[in-house]
Amino acid sequence: MHEFSPLWIPILGILMPVVLVPMIMLLKHRTLQREWQHKERMRAIEMGIPAGAIAGGGVGAMGAGVPIASVIAAAVTSLAYQPTSSGDEVPVFAIAWGLAFFISILGMASALMLAHIQGRARNQAESLHAMRAGKASFDPDAYDVVSSRG
Question: How far apart, in whole angstroms, are the C-alpha atoms of residue 26 and residue 29?
């Protein structure tokens, strides 16, 4: 068994603020950020801006996060792999990095498609919002209607 040293008590007492202070600051910042987002959404609703026009960072996070995570996983696999014989390392590295490349391409392609779909939905929401406001999206005086001539 390990013997408990009385020196650990002051060391842990000194190190506790190193963990607690950043954690408390992070939680406070996240609370303020949620409050700011709520105020921004409420202001957008008051101004009549569609709610979908505000959000949109999730697709970018997916498009960047999936490739980063797959490359990190391939790097960890490459660093942690201990070959059992002299010819084993190449197939494992090729599989790890090949799958990281494949997953990265799929993640970026999915994010691109979702961004395109989200952009189309945003455009449709904006055009519907323009029609709800009572203002047409075209100038009716710019067209000559036969029935108006008499």
Answer: 5
Structure tokens at 93: 């590295």
In-domain check, residue 140: no
Task: Give every CB contact of residue 122 below 8 A, 6+ residues apart in sequence.
Answer: 50, 52, 53, 56
**Domain for residue 99, yes or no?**
yes
Give the domain range for residue 118.
Answer: 53-132
Q: How many CA atoms lie within 13 A of 41 on its CB side?
A: 9
One digit per residue, pLDDT tens: the chain, 150 residues?
Answer: 567 788 888 888 888 888 899 999 999 999 999 999 899 888 877 877 666 554 567 788 888 899 999 999 999 988 888 777 776 667 888 888 999 999 999 999 998 998 888 888 777 766 665 555 555 556 666 666 666 565
Phi, psi of 5 (to 5 degrees): -95, 135
Q: Are residues 35 and 100 in the same domain?
A: no
pTM assigned to the model: 0.49
Report how many domains make up the chain. 2
Helix 89-132, helix 57-80: angle, nearest 10: 170
